[in-house]
Design brief:
- The chain has about 160 residues and is mainly β.
- It folds into 2 domains: about 80 residues, Chitinase A, domain 3, CATH 3.10.50; about 45 residues, Thrombin, subunit H (Beta Barrel), CATH 2.40.10.330.
- The chain is built from 2 helices and 9 strands.
- A hairpin with a 2-residue loop joins strand 1 and strand 2.
- The protein starts with 10 loop residues before the first strand and ends in a 10-residue tail after the last helix.
Length: about 160
């Protein structure tokens, strides 16, 4: 099997630009190419699927529907939390983003929707839930993963955390 196209089990380096509603939200221009291990769900499913078979140097525009991206907006994904459960030194404001730990000890992202004297309403929807994602991607390099990367199912980059 030739290693010159994007396929599961290879580490793909890509330049990309993400546009939502005509606004560029994210791009690899500053940080350099993003690396991901194909086939391991490191990037949104719709984009991963569309990139399969791309060659080095090839670029492509991909439109990813919410279901294949960060999910549909979930009206149920809100939670009211008693205000006294938040650390007193935390400056609570509408729109700030928090990392909260759920019952399973999983880190979850939440945004403060609104605040009353008694409680804080958190929105657990991903900020891009319900959004149609427009990617422009270009494959810049392909390589075999290290054994460690394969074991962990994701790329180990120096000082780069997702």
């Amino acid at each position: 099997m030739s290693k010159d196209t994007v396929q599961d089990g290879l580490v793909v380096s890509m330049d990309y630009k993400l546009t939502v509603d005509g606004e560029v939200l994210d791009s690899s221009e500053e940080a350099g190419p993003l690396q991901f291990l194909a086939g391991y769900g490191n990037i949104v499913p719709g984009l991963e699927r569309e990139m399969a078979g791309m060659k080095i140097g090839e670029s492509k525009d991909v439109v990813v529907s919410p279901a294949d991206g960060y999910g549909e907006f979930d009206e149920e994904a809100f939670m009211d939390v008693p205000r006294n459960e938040f650390p007193s030194d935390l400056k609570l404001e509408e729109g700030i983003e928090l990392n909260v730990t759920d019952e399973d000890g999983q880190n979850q992202y939440a945004r403060v929707e609104n605040i009353t004297d008694e409680s804080v309403r958190l929105d657990f929807n991903h900020p891009l839930a319900g959004a149609e994602l427009h990617f422009n991607v270009k494959v810049v390099a392909l390589r075999d993963p290290t054994k460690e990367e394969l074991d962990h199912g994701h790329v180990h980059e120096e000082g780069h955390h997702h």
